[in-house]
Design brief:
The protein is mainly α and about 70 residues long. The protein is about 80% helix and about 0% strand. α1 packs antiparallel against α2. The chain is elongated. The protein starts with a helix and ends in a 6-residue tail after the last helix.
């Protein structure tokens, strides 16, 4: 993987991590308020899980292939 591709992956990874943290804050705030919209909370949690999957895939793609 060349440097421009790696830089692009790092930027995307940083964006996804930032969005993941932001969603965590929103979910925490929403859960604290009463009454809260259960459907909205579920959708936010689902989005957060999808972001986590994307983050893990990008991190895996950035690891060098090591042939044992």
């Amino acid at each position: 993987m060349d440097q421009p591709d790696l830089d692009q992956l790092r930027r995307k990874l940083a964006e996804l991590k930032s969005e993941h943290r932001d969603l965590d804050d929103v979910i925490s705030h929403l859960a604290e308020t009463r009454p809260f919209d259960q459907l909205q909370l579920q959708r936010l949690k689902k989005r957060k899980l999808a972001l986590k999957d994307q983050i893990l895939k990008l991190e895996d793609a950035m690891l060098p292939d090591i042939i044992a």
